[in-house]
Amino acid sequence: METSMNYNLDITPNYSYIFEFENEFIHQNYRKWMTENWTVAFYYVGIYMAFIFGGQYYMQNRPRFELRRTLIIWNSALAAFSIMGACRTLPEFIHVLRNHGLYHSICVPSFIEQDKVSGFWTTMFVLSKVPELGDTVFIVLRKKPLIFLHWYHHITVLLYTWFSFTEYTSSARWFVVMNYCVHSVMYSYYALVSMGRYPPKMLAMTITFLQLTQMIVGCAINIWAHNYMATAPPHSCHISQINIKLSMAMYFSYFVLFAHFFYKAYLSPKPGKKAKVEPLPEEPSAKKIDYNGYPRQRNGVVH
C-alpha cells in the first residue's frame, strides 16, 4: 500500500507495509473520546470485582465448567493480538531509540502523534485492557485459585492505561512495547497449556522472569523521566508528575508481588511445589492440576 500519510520519516520507521485500518487512524479522535470517558473504567472495575466475589460465591457448591475449547480460542486470540501488537510497535521503538536516543524515547510521544501504525496499536493496547478482564472469568468459572496479584494487576493496569492515554504519556512507548512482547510469550504459553501441551518448566520460569524484568525496567524509566523533568526545559518532557508517581507505585508493587510469587513458586522448598509449576499431561476433565494462578498472572501494562 502506498504510504500516503504525512509522516516525518526521520521520526517514523520505513514500514514495508501499512494496513488500511492503520492508515486511517486519527489519534485526536481517540484522545478526545478517552479524555471524556476514561473514568468509565471505574465502572468496569466495579462490575469486575462484583463478578469475582459474586461468581466465586455462586460457584462454591456447583461443579466447575471445563470451557476447554473456549479457553483455547481465548488464549490463542490474545496471543495473536499480542504478537501482532509487538511486531507493529517494536519497529518504531527501535528506530527512535537508535536514531534519537533515550531522552526522545521517554519524553516525546511521537509514537502516537506522528506514527499511525504505532499509534493505532498503542490505542488497541489501551482498549484491550477491558476484554483482558475475561481472563478472570475463566478462573472463576473453572474454580481455579484466584490470587491477589491476578486481579490487582488487572484493575490497576486498566485504570492506569486509560488515564495515561488522556495525557499521551510519552514514557508509555516503553510500557506498551514491553507488555506486548511479554504477553506474546505468555499467552502463547497459555494457549499451549489449554491445548494439553505442556512446555518445559524453564519456559514457565522464563515468563515470570520476563515479568519481573518488565517491572524493573518500568521503575527505571520512571526514574529517568523524573530526572529529565528536573533538568530539561519546562514542558519539554511529556509526562506529568502525578503520572510518574502512579506508575512508579504500580511497577514497584508489581515487582514485590511477582518476586514473592517467583520465590514461592520456584525457590521455596515447599512440598508439592513441582505439581503446581510443572503440570503433567492428563485428561481434560481431570481436576488434579492446580496452577495456583501460575503463571496465570495476567501481566500486562504492563505498561
Compact description:
Helix content is 68%, strand content 0%. It is mostly helical and 303 residues long.
Q: How big a fraction of the residues is strand?
A: under 5%
Assembly type: single chain
Main sheet properties: none
Per the principal axes of the C-alpha atoms, what is the gross shape? globular
Overview of this protein structure:
The chain is mainly α and 303 residues long. Helix content is 68%, strand content 0%. It has helices at residues 20-23, 27-37, 40-59, 68-107, 110-113, 116-128, 134-141, 148-167, 172-194, 201-231, 241-267, 273-277. The two termini are 31 Å apart. The model is unreliable at 1-7 and 273-303 (pLDDT under 50). One of its GO terms (molecular function) is fatty acid elongase activity. Pfam families: ELO (PF01151). It catalyses: a very-long-chain acyl-CoA + malonyl-CoA + H(+) = a very-long-chain 3-oxoacyl-CoA + CO2 + CoA. This is Elongation of very long chain fatty acids protein. It comes from Parnassius mnemosyne.
What tags apply to this protein structure?
disordered N terminus; fatty acid elongase activity; ELO_fam; lipid metabolism; mainly alpha; disordered C terminus; globular; 303 residues; fatty acid biosynthesis; single chain
Architecture blueprint of SSEs:
Blueprint: H1 20-23, H2 27-37, H3 40-59, H4 68-107, H5 110-113, H6 116-128, H7 134-141, H8 148-167, H9 172-194, H10 201-231, H11 241-267, H12 273-277
